[in-house]
Write a structure and sequence with these properties.
The complex is a heterodimer. Chain A has two domains: about 30-145 and about 300-350, Periplasmic binding protein-like II (D-Maltodextrin-Binding Protein, domain 2), CATH 3.40.190; about 145-300 and about 365-420, Periplasmic binding protein-like II (D-Maltodextrin-Binding Protein, domain 2). In chain A, a hairpin with a 2-residue loop joins strand 4 and strand 5 (about 135). Chain A has helices at about 1-30, 40-55, 70-80, 95-105, 125-130, 150-155, 170-185, 195-205, 225-235, 245-255, 270-275, 315-325, 330-340, 355, 365-375, 385-400, 405-420, and strands spanning about 30-35, 60-65, 90-95, 130, 135, 140, 145-150, 190, 240-245, 260-265, 280-285, 305-310. Chain A is of the alpha/beta class. In chain A, the strands form four sheets. Chain A has a five-stranded mixed sheet. Chain A has a three-stranded antiparallel sheet with strand order 10-7-11. Chain B is mainly alpha-helical. Chain B has two domains: about 1-60, no CATH class; about 65-295, MetI-like (MetI-like fold). Chain B has 13 helices and two strands. Chain B has a two-stranded antiparallel ribbon with strand order 1-2. In chain B, helix 3 (about 65-100) packs parallel to helix 7 and helix 4 crosses helix 7. Chain B is globular, with a radius of gyration of 25 Å. The model of chain B has no long low-confidence stretch (mean pLDDT about 90). Classes of the chains: A alpha/beta, B mainly alpha.
C-alpha cells in the first residue's frame, strides 16, 4: 500500500510525460486520413497521390481507408448528423450524384476551396455539382464519361465492322443486338433491372435529368426521360439483354464473355482490361443516340470528387495536398490514366502523352483521346439533391414497363413517388 | 429508541440500495429513456440533414401520401400475416415429433433444426442469395427433378422475391421457436398422454386437444416475439436485395425504409423517426390483440 502510494505520482508523471510527448510528435508529423471506395481505383489512386505529396512534404503522411461505397456514405452521413467531428476523416470521396445532398443538408461541414483552387481548369459540369451559392467545395476528380464497349469478334461474326458501330441510334443498336444473337447466340448487353444506370445515361445524353435547373421534379414533361424509358423497354421486349442481379453479377456478364457490348462509364476500363484473354477483342465507340431534340452521343455515369471536412485538424495540409496533386500535377494524371484508366476532369491533363497513346488491349485504338473528346461534350445537368430517391422510383417502375404499361402511365407513377419523396 | 434505530438502518439500506442501482438507472435513462423521448420529439420535425424545423403532425400527414411508405407497410404486414402462422405451426409440429422419446437420432435433428438461428444473419442471407440465383443450386435441382421447366426468378420477380424472404426467415427462426415448445413439452405430465392413449384418443386429437392447450402461454409468447421480429425485419431483405428492397419495392420493409430515409436518401431524421414510431404502435397493437385473443375466457 505504502509502496503504491509513493509510486502513484511517479506513474502519473510518466503517463503525463508520454502524453505530452505524443502530442509533440503529433504536431510535427501530420497524418491525413482519407475515406474512399474501390481498392483498384480510388484507393490506389489516392495512395499514388499521397506518395507524390510526401516526397515534397516529408512531414505529411497519409492513411487511405478502404470501405465499400455505401459504407463510406453511411459513415459520413452518421458522423455529420451526430456532430462529432472526431469520427470523421480529413478528406472524403463523394459521388457526384450525392454531392449537393451533403453540401446542402450539412452546411458548414465541408471546407470551401474557392479561394485556393483554380476551377476554370476543370470540366464545367464537375464544378457545377460542387457549387452552393457562390462557394465551390471540393476537388473535382474522375469523370464518368460514357462509352460503348463492344466485342469486335462477336460483331464480326454477326457481320458488323467497327465502322458500323460508330454514331449509332438506340434503335439501330437493338437491331444489331438481334442479329448478334441470331448469329452468335450471345446477348447484346447485361442489364440489371434494379439499377437505373442505363436510364440515367440515356437521359443525360439528351441534356435532361430527373430535376430541372431549380431542383423541381422534371418527370412527366421530360422528353429525354420518356425516351430513355422507352429505349430500356425496347431493349427488354426485344430480349437482347442478359438479366443480372446486382453489380457483381452485371460485371460478370461481360468478363465471362456472355455479352457483346457494355454501355457505361469510363471507369469500367480497368475491369474490362482485367481479362487478359480478351485482349484485342474489344473496341470502343460513342454511345448510341436518342432520336429527340438535343440528343448527343456523350453522357456521364457516376464519377466522384474529393471533399475536405471543415472540422479536420489537418485542413490546411489537406487542401494544399489536393491543390498540389489533383489541381496541378499533369504527370500524376498520366500515371493514373495508364495504371488505372482514370479520366480526370482537369482539362490541362488531356494534353499529356498518355492521352495520345494507343492501347493494344483495344487493338491499338487511341481510346483515351476518344474519351476525353467525349468528356468535353457531356451535357451539363443539375443532379439536384434527390437523385437516389428518383432512382429508386424509376427502378420500382421498370417491371411495369416490361409488362406493357404505357410509358406515360409509368412516368405518372414515377412522378407520384418522387413528389412524395422530395420534401 | 429501537424504532428510531430501525428507521435509520432502513434509511441506510434505502440510500445504499439506490446508490447501487443508480449507475444502472442512469445508463438506462441515458441510453434508453432519453433516446425514446428524443426520437418522439424528432418525429414532429422535418428537414434536410441538420436543417430541421418543427412541423407538428406534418410527418404523419406525409405518411398517408407516401406511396413508398404504404408499400413498405403492406409488405411488412404480408410477411407477418403469411410467415408467422406458418412458422409457429411448423415449429409446433417439429417440436412434438422431436419430443417422441422413441425417435431415432432426435438429438441430432434437434441440433440441426436449431442451428440456423445461431448462424450470422448476413452469412445466411448471402448464402441464400447464391442458392436462389437464376442459375443457382435451388433452380437447377427443381429443374433436374422436373418440378419446374424454366428457372424461377427468385430475386427478380416481385412475388417470388417475397416468397424467398419468407422462406429465408422461416428457415432461420423455426428452430428457435421449436426450442421453446420442446422445453414446454417436457413439463407436460406424460400420464396425461397415457390416459388419452388408453381412452383411444388418436394422435392428431392428442395434439390438438392436449398439446396445444397446454402450450398456450408459450405459443402466445413465441407469437408475440415472432411478431416483433417480423415487423422489424431488416437484415434479410437488406442483404438479399443489396439494400434496395427490390424488385419494384416488393420486398421493402418498414425498417429498410427507415434505413433508406436516414442513410441512402436525403437524410430526413424527423420523418424516419415518425416511421419508426409506426413500428412501435404496430407492435403494441398486435401484441395487445394477441393477448386479447389468448385470454382465459372461462375465468
Amino acid at each position: 500500500m505504502d509502496n503504491l502510494a509513493r509510486a502513484l505520482p511517479r506513474i502519473a508523471g510518466l503517463a503525463l510525460a508520454s502524453v505530452s510527448f505524443l502530442a509533440v510528435t503529433a504536431a510535427q508529423a501530420k497524418e491525413i486520413t482519407i475515406w474512399c471506395w474501390d481498392p483498384n481505383f480510388n484507393v490506389a489512386i489516392m495512395k499514388e497521390a499521397g506518395a507524390r505529396y510526401t516526397k515534397t512534404h516529408p512531414d505529411v503522411t497519409f492513411n487511405v481507408v478502404d470501405f465499400a461505397k455505401t459504407d463510406v456514405e453511411q459513415k459520413l452521413q452518421t458522423g455529420l448528423a451526430s456532430g462529432t467531428a472526431d469520427a470523421l476523416p480529413d478528406i472524403v470521396l463523394i459521388e457526384d450524384y450525392g454531392a449537393q445532398k451533403y453540401l446542402q443538408s450539412f452546411p458548414g461541414a465541408f471546407a470551401p476551396l474557392s479561394g485556393t483552387v483554380d476551377y476554370s481548369g476543370f470540366a464545367p459540369y464537375k464544378v457545377q455539382v460542387m457549387t452552393v451559392g457562390d462557394q465551390v467545395y471540393g476537388m473535382p476528380f474522375d469523370s464518368g464519361v460514357t462509352g460503348l464497349y463492344y466485342r469486335k469478334d462477336y460483331l464480326e461474326q454477326a457481320g458488323f465492322k467497327p465502322e458500323d458501330m460508330q454514331n449509332l441510334t438506340w434503335d439501330r443498336f437493338i437491331e444489331i443486338g438481334q442479329q448478334v444473337e441470331e448469329k452468335t447466340g450471345k446477348k447484346m448487353m447485361g442489364l440489371d433491372p434494379n439499377d437505373a444506370g442505363l436510364v440515367r445515361i440515356i437521359m443525360q445524353s439528351a441534356g435532361q435529368w430527373y430535376f430541372d435547373k431549380d431542383g423541381k421534379a422534371n418527370v412527366t414533361g421530360n422528353p429525354a426521360l420518356k425516351a430513355a424509358l422507352e429505349t430500356v423497354g425496347k431493349i427488354m421486349s426485344a430480349n437482347v439483354y442478359k438479366p443480372a442481379a446486382g453489380w457483381s453479377d452485371w460485371v460478370g456478364t461481360f468478363t465471362s464473355g456472355d455479352v457483346a457490348a457494355v454501355v457505361t462509364g469510363v471507369w469500367i476500363t480497368g475491369t474490362v482490361k482485367a481479362q487478359p484473354d480478351q485482349a484485342g477483342k474489344w473496341g470502343v465507340a460513342p454511345i448510341p443516340k436518342l432520336a429527340i431534340d438535343g440528343a448527343t452521343h456523350a453522357s456521364n455515369l457516376g464519377g466522384s470528387s474529393w471533399y475536405v471536412l471543415e472540422s479536420s485538424a489537418e485542413k490546411a495540409e489537406a487542401i494544399d495536398f489536393l491543390n498540389e496533386i489533383y489541381g496541378k500535377d499533369i504527370d500524376f494524371y498520366q500515371t493514373i490514366l495508364q495504371d488505372r484508366g482514370a479520366v480526370g476532369s482537369l482539362l490541362a491533363a488531356r494534353g499529356g502523352a498518355a492521352y495520345e497513346a494507343a492501347d493494344p488491349f483495344f487493338g491499338g485504338e487511341k481510346v483515351w483521346q476518344s474519351f476525353s473528346d467525349w468528356l468535353a461534350k457531356v451535357p451539363s445537368v443539375n443532379y439536384g439533391i434527390f437523385t437516389n430517391e428518383a432512382d429508386t422510383a424509376v427502378t420500382a417502375q421498370l417491371p411495369a414497363l416490361t409488362q406493357g404499361t404505357p410509358v406515360d402511365d409509368v412516368l405518372k407513377a414515377i412522378d407520384a413517388e418522387v413528389s412524395a419523396q422530395i420534401q | 429508541m429501537v424504532h428510531a434505530r430501525r428507521g435509520s438502518i432502513g434509511r441506510y439500506y434505502d440510500v445504499n440500495g439506490w446508490l447501487f442501482v443508480a449507475p444502472v438507472l442512469g445508463l438506462i435513462g441515458l441510453f434508453m429513456i432519453y433516446p425514446i423521448f428524443w426520437s418522439l420529439w424528432m418525429s414532429f420535425q422535418s428537414g434536410r440533414g441538420m436543417m430541421m424545423k418543427f412541423v407538428g403532425f406534418g410527418n404523419i400527414v406525409r405518411l398517408w401520401n407516401d406511396p413508398v411508405f404504404i408499400k413498405a407497410l403492406t409488405n411488412t404486414m404480408t410477411y407477418f400475416v403469411v410467415q408467422v402462422p406458418i412458422m409457429i405451426l411448423l415449429a409446433l409440429i417439429l417440436a412434438s415429433i422431436l419430443n417422441n422419446p422413441r425417435l431415432f437420432g432426435r438429438g441430432l435433428f434437434r441440433t440441426a433444426i436449431f442451428l440456423p438461428c445461431v448462424t450470422s444473419l448476413v452469412a445466411y442471407s448471402v448464402l441464400f442469395k447464391g442458392m436462389f440465383a437464376t442459375d443457382g443450386v435451388v433452380n437447377s435441382t427443381l429443374q433436374a427433378i422436373g418440378i419446374v421447366s424454366s428457372p424461377i426468378p427468385w430475386l427478380t420477380h416481385p412475388f417470388w422475391a417475397k416468397a424467398l424472404v419468407i422462406i429465408a426467415i422461416t428457415w432461420r427462426w423455426t428452430g428457435y421457436n421449436m426450442i421453446f415448445y420442446l422445453a414446454a413439452l417436457q413439463n407436460i405430465d406424460r400420464s396425461i398422454y397415457e390416459v388419452a392413449r388408453i381412452d383411444g384418443v388418436p394422435a392428431w386429437a392428442r395434439f390438438t386437444h392436449i398439446t396445444i392447450p397446454l402450450l398456450k402461454p408459450v405459443i402466445l409468447f413465441t407469437t408475440v416475439i415472432s411478431t416483433i421480429g417480423t415487423v422489424q425485419l431488416f437484415d434479410e431483405v437488406y442483404n438479399l436485395t443489396e439494400g434496395r428492397g427490390g424488385p419494384s419495392n416488393a420486398t421493402l420493409t418498414l425498417s429498410l425504409y427507415i434505413y433508406n430515409l436516414t442513410f441512402r436518401f436525403m437524410p430526413n431524421f424527423g420523418y424516419a423517426a415518425t416511421v419508426s414510431y409506426v413500428i412501435v404502435v404496430l407492435v403494441a397493437l398486435l401484441a395487445f390483440f394477441q393477448f386479447f385473443a389468448a385470454r382465459e375466457r372461462d375465468k
